[in-house]
Design a protein that fits this description.
The chain has 429 residues and is an alpha/beta fold. Helices cover 38% and strands 15% of the residues. It contains 14 helices and 16 strands. It has a 7-stranded mixed sheet with strand order 4-12-11-10-9-5-8, sandwiched between helices. β13 and β14 form a beta hairpin. α3 packs parallel to α10 and α11 packs parallel to α14. It binds 4'-deoxy-4'-aminopyridoxal-5'-phosphate. The site of 4'-deoxy-4'-aminopyridoxal-5'-phosphate (PMP) has 16 residues, from α4. It catalyses: (S)-4-amino-5-oxopentanoate = 5-aminolevulinate. Belongs to the class-III pyridoxal-phosphate-dependent aminotransferase family. HemL subfamily. It is an enzyme of class 5 (isomerase). Pathway: Porphyrin-containing compound metabolism; protoporphyrin-IX biosynthesis; 5-aminolevulinate from L-glutamyl-tRNA(Glu): step 2/2.
Length: 429
Amino acid sequence: MTRSAELFERAQHSIPGGVNSPVRAFKGVGGTPIFIQKAKGAYMYDEDGQRYIDYIGSWGPMITGHADEDILDAVRQRLELGLSYGAPTALETEMAETLCQLVPSMQKVRMVNSGTEATMSAIRLARGYTGRDKILKFEGCYHGHSDSLLVKAGSGALTFGVPTSPGVPADFAQHTLTLPYNDIPALEACFAQVGQEIACIIVEPVAGNMNCIPPQPGYLEALRRVCDQYGTLLIFDEVMTGFRVALGGAQAHYQVTPDLTTLGKIVGGGLPVGAFGGRKEVMDHLSPLGPVYQAGTLSGNPLAMAAGLALLRKIQAPGFHQQLSDYVTRLCAGLEAAAAEAGIPVITQAVGGMFGLFFTDQPSVNNFNAATACDLEAFNRFFHAMLKEGVYLAPSAYEAGFVSSCHGEEELQLTLEAAQKAFATLKKS
Ligand code: PMP
């Protein structure tokens, strides 16, 4: 028995499913999870001493690689000054100024402790600001696990939402409308019917929670247009895409400006942080200035601010995002070539530093139904074959992959060699 297997066995006695977040349990891909002992640069090391090239990067934050010395130093320097005060600090203003400068649609910003908190708070603010209850989200987009957002479409195209999890009251879920991603006619039909009742649209401007699905040309513009027409706020959930698809996020990449933006992951440099911000006039509805309540004991935590600021400084280096994007382009081309050589139908989709691999014979995958129609079984076998070769992909066919600036020539070659072997095993079975 491996040490990881032993640790997993032990964990299950005291932690539900042995993990603190479900996808870590390898339930989708089968097998048992690997327990990580340490990580450095592009690599993670498990409790059995195996090394892996990491394409998760803590699900996004490790964009300059693991255990980045500059970030560790920034945290070390703050450490001696105390861990939390529950009172304002200069660092929080520095963080807010940095965010507003890097993402100019954010004229004011508030820090929270996770992506879930950021989206939950942004939605409350949108509802409070507009005085409307309904919100619109898209099938396959994930925005954290707050009640309003754990909702799927009802049976008809325009029925009220139904909970995807026990514990979410149906009365609550009915305020969440759900439409297919990348479908402008469905969007327009929905707004023609109930547009005046919709407080906000929340969207992943590049979907990263149903594998990697970019917006079709004109789609984000259509969201902006209907929001303007009906007095609805547009929320870009950039928890994943923020500082990753471009320095200014997807809104800079696609040149579409939301009213509110939610951030997480990179913004905390690996410590638990989220943020939401947007137009001053909307943000000023928040307590203590306005009536919409939102708060947090550890929000703006000094260690987290120090880590996040150190990371945000580094990723402003000229060419940083181009390097990520170049790596992803070569990785995707190499993966497609290796699959083609083995005669396995595979396509890739990518934007900046995020990418996805689809086992499909379709030319592109544009929404949740298309993503779930891919060959899940083939992905699962590929995942395990890659893991065996020392490449750690996200343990789910429905998660995007992430690269860091530590992923270089050597990691690319090792990954593509592993992929050749992995695709060959798929061909055999
Ligand atoms: N929004 C998006 C787009 C996400 O990808 C995630 C998490 N992967 C969240 C929100 C929730 O963030 P957290 O897990 O920090 O609560």
